[in-house]
């Protein structure tokens, strides 16, 4: 998955640097971090935002903080941002498969076995080393990120149309009412802020990983696991004091299982 990149290349002259806009300087710095692996959390966030055009791939909302901090970027995106709106909660990096699961000593073996069934050993090896890679992340609004992590919606690839996805929701009235300008079908593509040569340095989300994520979401909803999760979370809110006779043992077991499962799958 990880592209080996060389950090050697033509050095920019002082005159070239002086004529760059503030956003171009920021962009060059972000692209330079692609030569380092694994990236830090701030680096993968900046890389993902740049690739996705500083907007949620589902709602189209722009990242308010990024536009606020860079006037040049704001000027380039202003016509679009007026029509699409800003993300009130800020945009977040959503993982197709969790960045924290790799800390589990059993995760490496189980991930290899599971993904090998789908002919994805190379993908599994990559994720067990570091899941903070562009193939494993998308940009989402904070609220949509939460719903994505809970398998309340997923992206189902459109046959024979690379990187085009239908947005499938378990309960559309909840998911699409959250999105100011809902798109039922999206195409994941490199931002127009990137030149063709710069796009070659980056990667779009892995289609196989996206398909596997969608399969997990469908199984969770069809099996009733998602509904069971919602009941456990409701109990967590309502139960203030645990029974002294051990009557809440089953509830605690279910809650513990839910929390550990969230670490392993959701992101």
Question: How helix-rich are the residues, as a percent range?
Answer: 40-55%
Please indicate the count of domains: 1
What's the total count of β strands? 7
Shape: globular
Largest pleated sheet: 3 strands, antiparallel
InterPro entries: HNH_nuc (IPR003615)
Protein name: HNH nuclease domain-containing protein
Pfam family, one: HNH_2
Domain HNH nuclease: 56-154
Detail the topology: elements first, then pairings.
Layout: H1 14-19, H2 22-32, H3 41-51, E1 62-63, H4 64-69, H5 71-84, E2 86-87, E3 91-95, H6 107-116, H7 121-129, E4 137-141, H8 142-149, E5 153-157, E6 164-169, H9 172-178, E7 185-187, H10 196-199, H11 207-222, H12 225-238, H13 249-264
Parallel strand pairs: 1-2
Antiparallel strand pairs: 3-4, 5-6, 6-7
Helix pairs in contact: 6-7, 12-13
Please provide a written account of the structure:
This is HNH nuclease domain-containing protein. Residues 56-154 form the HNH nuclease domain. It comes from Pterulicium gracile. It holds the Pfam family HNH_2. The protein has 267 residues and is mostly helical. It has one domain. Helix content is 49%, strand content 10%. The strands form three sheets. The protein has a three-stranded antiparallel beta sheet. The chain has a two-stranded parallel ribbon with strand order 1-2. Strands 3-4 form a two-stranded antiparallel sheet. Strand 5 and strand 6 form a beta hairpin. Helix 6 runs antiparallel to helix 7 (121-129) and helix 12 packs across helix 13. The chain is globular and about 50 Å long. It starts with 13 loop residues before the first helix and ends with a helix.
């Amino acid at each position: 998955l990880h592209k080996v990149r060389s950090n050697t290349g033509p050095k920019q002259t002082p005159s070239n640097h002086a004529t760059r806009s503030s956003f171009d300087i920021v962009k060059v710095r972000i692209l330079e971090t692609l030569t380092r692996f694994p990236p830090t959390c701030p680096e993968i966030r900046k890389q993902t935002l740049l690739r996705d055009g500083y907007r949620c791939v589902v709602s189209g909302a722009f990242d308010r903080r990024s536009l606020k901090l860079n006037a040049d970027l704001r000027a380039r995106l202003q016509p679009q941002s007026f029509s699409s709106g800003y993300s009130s909660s800020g945009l977040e990096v959503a993982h197709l498969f969790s960045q924290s699961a790799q800390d589990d000593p059993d995760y490496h073996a189980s991930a290899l076995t599971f993904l090998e069934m789908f002919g994805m050993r190379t993908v599994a090896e990559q994720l067990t080393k570091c899941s903070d890679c562009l193939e494993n992340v998308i940009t989402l609004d904070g609220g949509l990120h939460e719903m994505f992590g809970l398998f309340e919606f997923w992206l189902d690839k459109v046959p024979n149309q690379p990187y085009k996805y239908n947005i499938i929701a378990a309960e559309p009235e909840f998911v699409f009412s959250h999105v100011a300008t809902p798109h039922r079908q999206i195409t994941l593509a490199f931002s127009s802020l990137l030149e063709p040569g710069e796009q070659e340095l980056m990667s779009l989300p892995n289609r196989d990983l996206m398909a596997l994520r969608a399969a997990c979401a469908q199984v969770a909803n069809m099996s009733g696991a998602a509904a069971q999760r919602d009941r456990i979370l409701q109990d967590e809110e309502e139960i203030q004091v645990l029974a002294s006779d051990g009557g809440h043992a089953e509830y605690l077991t279910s809650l513990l299982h839910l929390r550990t499962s969230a670490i392993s799958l959701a992101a």
